[in-house]
Amino acid sequence: MRIHDRPIQERIEALLALSREHAATYCSPSASLSRERYLARHPTRILAMKCMDGRLHLPHATRTPLGIITPFRNLGGIFDLGWPYLGEILTDAVGEAIRAGNGVLLVITYHFSRGSKARGCAGFDCDHRAALAHARQIQAQAERLFGRDRRNVYPLVCGFETDSDALIVHGEGDAILDLGTLAEDAAPGLERRLAALCPDMAADIRRDLLPLLAGNLAHVAALRGVARDLDIEHREWVICVGRGFDFLHLPNTALIIGPYGPDLAEPIGTAADIIDANMAAGRIPDDGFMLLASTPYQAVGVDRARAELKSRFLADFAARVIQRQHPRLAERMRSHTAVVHWPTRRLERLDGSTGGPT
Predict the structure, then answer these.
(1) Are 165 and 220 in contact (CB under 8 A)?
(2) What is the sign, positive or negative, of the torsion defined by CA atoms of 144, 149, 155, 160?
């Protein structure tokens, strides 16, 4: 029995077990040493703005150690850098990197399917061009924020083709580097191709982008000829609000709403619509769904206390929206509130959560 077909309590327990497994892997000696070794050779800070779709697992698709790429995930990959909280998080991350003497690569992603338009991004009605246009808008905002010369922060638009897991790197105008069209032995020529595609990219940032491209090239080559279930039915049964959901890369499981805009009620309501429709169509059992609110923190004390307050606020706010818009669905809601110790990626349940073991 697949996880989507299990009773709600078993689904919740499986998801929480996944978070524990992710933290254990992240904290393992091997993973820790891999990160340290990688960052010693490639210190550019890599931030990725992407859709909440579980198929977009960039560390896996680029063969990069966990913890190197810092993700920002939201429904549809829709962001506005003018929103104060998002702008503050980005500028803080950039400032930290610059003070350490390192550049920043801001990877702005959109996704699509070559095999079927219907497998594209639901946030843009599976419109490939609309998703790309939005990524370009974010790129333009980043240039206004961090400098049009792109010397210190390079905003790079990248497509992600979900049938093959291939990256499509966009340069000036219509120029692209489509890794899905290259053979694995093309790796030695990637530096030359990238320099021609992005001639304004600083040498140190280009050096630290190349391992991601080479890793993706090898990953795509390894998948060729492998049977994959591409036509995955939307069966989401989790609504996630907040940040710290790195462990969630299961396709069509969770709807992730980051606190990146002034109107959280609309995406929460949309997520509830999707869950309700999934139950009505029999795609998931109608015995319940999970609401998970999470906020990361770095240190104990005030930082953790503030994270707790944020998570409780997000959980209460989301619950009120769902109760107002879908009162019958709200009766089947299992609300869980947590914080994430970011240095270890450990999800820590808070007292007062309902519907599962602590």
Answers:
(1) yes
(2) positive
Structure token pair of residue 224: 């060729």
Start-end of CATH 3.30.1330.140 domains in the chain = 1-40+233-358
Judge whether 349 and 357 are in contact, CB under 8 Å. Answer: no
Cβ 153 vs Cβ 146: under 8 Å: yes
Q: In angstroms, rounded to a whole number, what is the distance separating the alpha carbons of residues 205 and 146? A: 15
Cβ 167 vs Cβ 61: under 8 Å: yes
- How far is Cα 16 from Cα 14, in angstroms, rounded to an integer? 6
Mean pLDDT by 10 residues, the chain (358 residues): 86 95 96 96 97 87 94 89 91 95 97 89 88 96 96 97 95 93 94 96 97 97 81 82 89 88 89 93 94 96 97 97 96 97 96 46
Those residues with Cβ within 8 angstroms of residue 241's Cβ, 6 or more apart along the chain or in another chain: 257, 259, 264, 268, 291, 292, 293, 294, 314, 315, 317, 318
Is 177 strand, coil or helix? Answer: strand
CATH superfamily of 1-40+233-358: Carboxysome Shell Carbonic Anhydrase, C-terminal domain (3.30.1330.140)
302/119 Cα distance (integer angstroms):
43
Amino acid at 325: Q
Strands of the 153-161 sheet, one edge to the other: 69-74, 45-51, 104-112, 153-161, 166-170, 176-178
Q: What is the β-pairing status of strands 166-170 and 153-161? A: antiparallel
Record the tokens describing residue 205, joined without a space: 């940032």
Residue intervals of the chain classified under CATH 3.40.1050 are 43-223
Question: Is 43-223 CATH 3.40.1050?
Answer: yes
Cβ atoms of residues 353 and 338 within 8 Å: yes
For residue 36, the surrounding DSSP H or E stretch is helix 29-41
State the pLDDT at residue 122: 79
